Amino acid sequence: MGISLALTVALILVAWAGAAAGLQAVLGTVTPYLAGLTFLGGVIWRVVRWARAPVPFRIPTTCGQERSLPWMRYATVDNPATTLGAVARVALEVLFFRSLLRNSRFELREGPKLVYFWEKWLWVAGLAFHWSLFAILTRHLRFFTQPVPAFVGWLEGADGFFQAGLSALYLTDVAVLVALTYLFLRRVLIPQVRYVSLPADYLPLFLIMGVAGSGVLMRYFFRVDVTAVKELALGLVTFHPVVPPGLSALFYVHLFLVSVLLMYFPFSKLVHIAGIFLSPTRNLANTNRERRHINPWNYPVKVHTYEEYEEEFRKHMIAAGIPVEKAGPPAQVGIPVEKEGQ
Amino acid sequence: MSAPKPQELLKISHRPPRTGWMDTPVQFRRGTWCYPGKARSLEVLDLPFPRQWSPEDDDWKLPPNWKEIVLEGLRERLHRFRSLQIFMDACVRCGACADKCHFFIGSGDPKNMPVLRAELLRSVYRREFTAAGKLLGRMVGARDLDERVLKEWFYYFFQCTECRRCSVFCPFGIDTAEITIIARELLNLLGLNVDWIATPIANCYRTGNHLGLLPHAFKDMVDFCVEEIQNVTGVGIEPTFNRKGAEILFVAPSGDVFADPGIYTFMGYLMLFHAIGLDYTLSTYASEGGNFGLFTSHEVMKRLNAKIYAEAKRLGVKWIIGGECGHMWRVLHQYMDTMNGPADFLEEPVSPITGTRFENARSTRMVHICEFTADLMKHGRLNLDPSRNDHLVVTFHDSCNPSRAMGLLDEPRYIIRNVCRHFFDMPENTIREYTFCCGSGAGLGPDENLEMRLRGGLPRANAVKYVHEKYGVNTLACICAIDRAALPPLMDYWVPGVGVTGVHELVGNALILPDEDERTTDLRGNPLPQPAGTGDPSGPGVSDLDEPGGPGPRSGPNTAPGREA
């Protein structure tokens, strides 16, 4: 954890120092482009690599009654028997974290007695975090588009329902910070989760905290020149990069952390967002016995054929009255019965 | 091998040790691992590097280029399985799976958390196959493959029963079974297997079943069941073997033919088929539905499974019915058609009794016996007297594979409700897709592994204990041959007074055969419950079928407290 925190702080200092040293052009244009390229290229490379590997077997994890007899109700989504059902299943995973909603924890009490509790907080925090992040990203379209699409305005209106001082307080800003804090605390406080956590698990948390924190500071405390930000952002997406004067170091910290996060993305666990769509235990319908699934690398194997089997045991089979393909020697009465143990 | 007392076993700490998991070497403590595969068994299937070795030795007699073999094997599998790539890359270590594993609950060993079990392999994957791992090493959880890592793999990948419970809870559907299957494939490249798997696959390959029963011995065992049915019902049944031209091939797990209490389930199958006059045959060549190849490698799985279709084709049957077995149905449902199909020499299954088309088995052409029987009951084609099971208060253990690889949840319950009048489900966190493993699946059932089996079986047993105390449940029904071997000692240890039965044993008890004598006992020879008021509650009937070679001492269902006369 320490190393991830130190790295994040170092990145913040680098950006700050860079801004102070007059490297706005590097921080405002070069790194964002580099980050964008790395992100796009990296994610495409990763997904193509996954997609090129075949799915040799149909291995859905079924989480409900199968479709078998016509009068028996089956779980259309949790154990899909149609493509539509499988799509719905993946959609529920992606949009609402269906599987995480099942989470439970256990306690071993005297007796012995194992007790299970519904553990919804990871689901709540995970959902709040991801959805808030998505809403915040969408709100950022205001900087990258001209004219701004109407739905961005609607989203801002809904999100900024509460007023904080002069400006609207975005619920998603609060939610993302609370959720991040919860996700961080559970990683530190739950012994098992702490035990499995790697520096690579803390780093994205700290980076996103840095991004969100700097964003919140710019919006509510050290107001940034929004027009200048938009000028820079539009310049980037129209490939006419400009570095307007007057943007604070805080802004460059924000932008730099986002850039680093994007570059880090394809090479880290953050690719889970793409992986979920391709996960064979979730995206396949349970039609295993109904439709044949083809394995592209299926190869012939050596088997013990019936002919070999009969050849070896014919004598016994005839003696026991079991039909055989080829007539063998006449059965002897009273041969000792061989029984092979393990 | 004797296990510690329950009080001792229950001293479980779920707090991880002070040392990080990469710095905590594995310890091979007796009672928690299985004996290595015998060289002779590996040789039967031409598996690599057969030799005598022991996990307790420092020197595992690995081939000099073992690292190359493993890494090349891993590279090959990354190209073959998208699942493996995604499961290696997508985990965020959220910890949702951590306490879903029965081995973690029962042992507290952090490497039994599914996330960490997978990290054992992932760490090597990152080191060898990702840029981040090559550059940053431990920061991103990467480490070199060395003998310590390999030993850890052997210990923990043969301490996973491939039950897939963790996969239900994973937000990305990461399936530890898939990771374990592939990790075991890598271990098998070096001749590292356990004997409780290696010897059954060798037997199965040569003789057609795990137990190594030769054709006439297999027939003898079936004949024994036939005699017992005659003793109980007075009805003579004549099953056929390897008969060409039969309509249906029936394949059961061989454990049902051989071991107590599976034989009672087998008797149930035979009685059912007799009652409806089914035109079926058994095969001595394909006398095993179970497939320990699943616990070895995809290739061995395919080699063993091939016999079923080959035999169906040779005998010219129309379609196939399969008996009650868990991992057997994982293979039949999720792998068989892909590996050894298409089964175009068979016909789409149609019940000759009810005319029901089993649409869901249209391609594989193999139907689960619970689907078949539930359909018969729905159409009222069976003459049943559920009061004959009145001495049993039943709960149902969803076997892992039919639950999480098929979704066969309601068919067995429907059958039980038709043949038993006292049925109670266990708490909902422990049944259906949330079901807990018996703790002995995936080839981990030998006696030398008893302590780990009892630990892994604790969550299942504890849920049984709940309904045992609350409703007086004295019978645990299941649809898996491994369960029928593993659950009786588990019950005796954690919940004495609960017996174990297959679903079709209950069917056999309740089924009224044409021309049968009045029954005085159930299939086990226990006296049938008397109508209320005239009951004879004088104690358990002694079954003359309780052979000493069975999987362990078993309390007769009648000895259970909470029984109502």
What kind of sheet is the major sheet of chain A?
Answer: 2 strands, antiparallel
Strand content of chain B: under 5%
Q: What about the largest sheet of chain B? A: 4 strands, parallel
Trace the largest sheet of chain B across and list its strands. Answer: 2-1-3-4
Please state the average pLDDT score of chain A: 93
End-to-end Cα distance of chain A, whole Å, is 52 Å
How many beta strands in the DSSP annotation of chain B?
7
Oligomer: heterodimer
Q: List the chains of the largest interface with their residue counts.
A: A-B, 108 and 126 residues
Rg from Cα of chain A: 30 Å
SSE inventory with pairings:
The complex is a heterodimer of chains A (342) and B (565).
Chain A (H helix, E strand, L loop, with lengths): L1 H19 L3 H29 L30 H14 L7 E6 L3 E6 L2 H19 L1 H4 L5 H10 L2 E3 L2 E3 L1 H19 L1 H6 L2 H23 L4 H12 L11 H16 L7 H7 L27 H14 L23
Antiparallel strand pairs in A: 1-2, 3-4
Chain B lengths: L5 H4 L29 H6 L21 H15 L1 H8 L12 H6 L6 H16 L1 H6 L10 H11 L7 H5 L6 H13 L6 H13 L7 H19 L14 E4 L2 H5 L3 H15 L3 E2 L16 H18 L3 E4 L3 H9 L1 H5 L25 E3 H10 L15 E4 L2 H7 L3 H10 L30 H7 L1 H14 L3 E4 L2 H14 L4 E4 H8 L55
Parallel strand pairs in B: 1-2, 1-3, 3-4, 5-6, 6-7
Helix pairs in contact in B: 3-10, 6-10, 8-10, 12-14, 14-24, 16-19, 18-20, 20-24, 22-23
Please provide a written account of the structure.
The complex is a heterodimer of chains A (342) and B (565). Chain A has 13 helices and four strands. Chain A is mostly helical. In chain A, strand 3 (162-164) and strand 4 form a beta hairpin. In chain A, helix 2 runs parallel beside helix 11 (249-264). Chain A starts with a helix and ends in a 23-residue tail after the last helix. Chain B has a four-stranded parallel sheet. A three-stranded parallel sheet of chain B has the order 5-6-7, sandwiched between helices. Classes of the chains: A mainly alpha (342), B mainly alpha (565). At the A-B interface, helix 2, strand 1, strand 2, helix 8 and helix 9 of A face helix 3, helix 4, helix 6, helix 9 and helix 11 of B.
